[in-house]
Amino acid sequence: AFLFHVDHHADFFLTYDNLIDEQEKIKNTDMKKMTDFVQKKLPVDNSEFIVPAMYKGIIGDAISVSRENRSLYGTLEDGSYKTTKKAWFKDRKGKIHNFFLCGSIYGLTGHNGLLTDEYNNFDVRQAFRKNHRKRNVILDIDLDFFTYRDDEDGAWAMNERHLETILSSEAFNFLWSSAEVVTIALEPYYCGFEAECIFILDKMNSIVLNKCGLDIKEKVTQQFGFSNK
Question: For 23-72, what is each residue's pLDDT tens digit?
Fold first, then answer.
């Protein structure tokens, strides 16, 4: 699948190469062992799930809509007139995986957008379109993307107007309409804790309700012990 990763953090890291050795011993059909591996071996901050998923063959290429692009796994390559800035690596079968970098969600669409400009960024458009035709696109959203951050004061949710501007934008609607699978990570710690997370979740819930007819907020808050205020 092609992955859209919308997150404050890039999550494109791998602390130990032997994680891949352990993962490759697990058969794709053995869900219990795979679940144990994910829950017990990968870092609890969820910063290393993309690289193993690429090695496992679940994900081919990805676009990172993130403000953090430091110390990424693989080889970092600056874009040119025709290509896109990215980190890339070869898996053990020789397949190249690209992690295309887009710092702003608004940079995906529009006149010079990564996925809509017909004269630039051939590499990322080709990778995306091939999977889009097959309805093989995953959208992964971490709620901490929708935060303001300060090194001293921590993080807090974007104001209502800012949130609604992003969630109603052409770019966000393009992401949503392109995806066959959508995952949403709460990330309360990186949102500025529970109250800030719930504020963002409430706005996201409106989008999910409108587009899919699903009310996720009550179920999510109950499952994770949030107050749902």
Answer: 999 988 899 999 999 999 998 888 899 999 999 999 999 999 987 767 89
Q: Do the beta carbons of residue 104 and residue 65 sit within 8 Å?
A: yes
Q: CB neighbours (10 Å) of residue 192?
A: 20
Find out whether 155 and 200 touch, Cβ atoms under 8 Å: no
Spatial distance between the Cα atoms of 154 and 196, rounded to a whole number of angstroms: 12
pLDDT tens, residue by residue, 213-229: 888 888 888 888 776 55
pTM: 0.90
DSSP string, 112-133: T-TTT-TTS-HHHHHHHHHHHH
Q: Tokens representing 165?
A: 């501007």
Distance (Å, whole) CA 119 – CA 229: 48
Structural contact between residues 182 and 176, judged by C-beta atoms closer than 8 angstroms:
yes
d(CA 229, CA 225): 12
Number of neighbours of residue 194 by Cβ within 10 angstroms: 18
